[in-house]
Design a protein that fits this description.
By secondary structure, the chain is α/β, with parallel strands linked by helices. The chain is built from nine helices and 13 strands.
């Protein structure tokens, strides 16, 4: 009788997977039978997956996932790329220096929300910033429901705040551009150097790719963290099950007069009334409109003509919105 045991995927290397059982870790592959059953790339194991091994320690099954963090693959090809699975929170790292990019930060927050993962913004390198509050107040004003942590690996600041979120059994994934301090944070949390670290180039503010693969580590408190390679291009992958976030605004939308209300210029729009009364902040409303547009644009997939038409329409709308503010 075939012996089966459960393991967790802690790293992947182009078709090979490092898995962790109760007693040991080793590198393995999927069986041919398993591979033949996979219809999509996302059917194959990813870091964070729980998998079933046969008595030869080959992967024969992926246990049903709690969630799957995905994005559209970089470049022009319309293809899904899986980042990690069974994730409870996404730690979005951005350094408090020249690399700070509010637009990129916004897209990371949306990436977490559409994948139904709790976003936590981690501001790194606070020891190199003279006015931390000035850098953070505007972006946090726009995302009043998103938690944030100020950290400095040099001063060991913020580590306790991260651990307070990463309780026993929870899994957090660290994302962000190269050079912002993800791997340094991982090393600090693990209290040992397991990931290579780099810095941001002065002449173009771009980070060096120090992490070249995704890997999962267990902390002393029994929580897990996943470090990822630097992500410079953030494109959403949208399907029928995509969650847009903004549950509070979606609840308000149910009170609109028309079911197809665009929450823009329509009369009897409940969301616009909430903004006018102060129940809903102007910043959050603008982010909702912006995110809804991005989600719709991503849902158009390879329909180039429709994507171009919609993009041009949004340009005109955005120009009018700026003029009317």
């Amino acid at each position: 009788m075939e012996e089966k045991k459960t393991a967790r995927v802690i790293a992947s290397y182009r078709g090979k997977y490092k898995v962790l059982t109760d007693s040991e870790s080793h590198v393995t592959e999927v069986t041919g039978n398993f591979a033949n059953k996979c219809m999509y790339i996302s059917d194959f194991p990813v870091v964070g997956d729980y998998v079933v091994l046969n008595d030869f320690n080959y992967i024969i099954e992926v246990v049903t996932r709690k969630n799957l963090l995905v994005r559209q693959a970089a470049g022009g090809k319309h293809q899904m790329q899986a980042i990690a699975s069974n994730v409870d929170c996404m730690f979005i790292t951005t350094s408090l220096n020249i690399e700070f990019n509010p637009v990129k930060l916004e897209r990371f927050i949306l990436l977490a929300q559409v994948n139904q993962i709790t976003p936590v913004v981690v501001f790194t390198k606070a020891d190199l910033c003279e006015n931390v509050e000035e850098w953070t107040k505007e972006i946090m004003k726009a995302y009043e429901n998103v938690a944030y942590i100020i950290t400095s690996s040099y001063e060991k600041k913020g580590m306790a705040d991260i651990l307070a979120i990463l309780q026993t059994g929870k899994t957090g994934v660290f994302v962000g551009a190269s050079g912002v301090g993800k791997s340094t944070l991982v090393n600090s949390l693990l209290k040992k150097e397991v990931m290579k670290t780099g810095s941001i180039r002065e002449y173009d503010a771009q980070g060096r790719h120090t992490t070249t693969h995704k890997e999962l580590f267990e902390l002393e408190n029994g929580a897990y963290i996943i470090d990822t390679p630097g992500i410079r291009e953030i494109n959403l992958w949208i399907d029928d099950d995509t969650y847009v976030g903004f549950s509070d605004i979606e609840e308000l939308a149910r009170g609109c007069k028309f079911s197809n209300c665009k929450h823009d210029k329509e009369e009897d729009c409940n969301i616009k009334r909430a903004v006018a009364s102060g129940e809903l902040s102007q910043e959050r409303y603008r982010n909702y409109i912006k995110y809804s547009r991005q989600v719709y644009y991503a849902s158009l997939g390879n329909n180039v003509a429709e994507r171009t038409r919609f993009k041009n329409k949004v340009k005109v709308q955005s120009k009018n919105e700026r003029y009317n503010r």
